[in-house]
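I am writing to request your help with a piece of structural work I have in hand. What I wish to show you is a protein chain and, alongside it, a tokenised description of its three-dimensional fold. Could you please explain, in whatever detail you think fit, how the structure tokens follow from the sequence? You will find the record immediately after this paragraph.
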Amino acid sequence: MQARTCKVYIISKLSEHKVYSQTLKQKKLKKDNLLIEDYIENSNLSCDDAGDDHISTGLETPMKKDSFAMSDKEKKVKISHLFKEIMDVLGLDLTDDSLKDTPNRVAKMYIEEIFSGLNPANKPKISLFENKYRYKQMLVEKDITFYSNCEHHFVPFTGKAHVAYVSSGKVIGLSKLNRIVQYYAKRPQVQERLTNQIAEDLKEILNTKDVAVIIDAKHLCVSSRGVKDNTSSTITSYYGGVFQDSAKITELQNYINK
């Protein structure tokens, strides 16, 4: 089959949202209530195609049952040892002053920084406040910078998240919106899942369906390898509750584009 570009909306039973997917090498599908897992299974996509096209296989980050059997210290020791082997296989001289401490630096970076969102212990503590101002319109926190890593190639994708909600009686500190975005970004990710995880968590925290999340990101797995396209970006969105109304979506877009 000749590869062609098409825009596909995947409607998942996991939540009430529409996810915009990247280029897919197959015909456009229009099926209601199609689980993302079923989409992959029935689409005849190869593993390479699915990997490059950032198909997410579920709402939850895939984790082993014994993910936290080792302490962070033990994980860093093991990662350092394994990364040293990778460098050795690549032919790098690990006695060089510039390289000898790289395995330890990478291990520390993985556990304490760029993948720290894998550990639930690092989830930000959230406090809610009464909506004493009786503010009943949407609140928008836009241009939240985030850095994440593609779980298919372990290279970064970076961009901005825009988060909005309508209070059901409680409000959240503005900085906590940034921290929630960063928590879910700091793990091996796909952009579709990142969008949904942020939205679902905010819905639970704020006890409201009236949540919207839009993410605009550039993927190094697209720009630095494969197709090597440095100009394209990927946009994903979640619209829940009142944000499913076209007028509300337009209002939100106007705020974001100011």
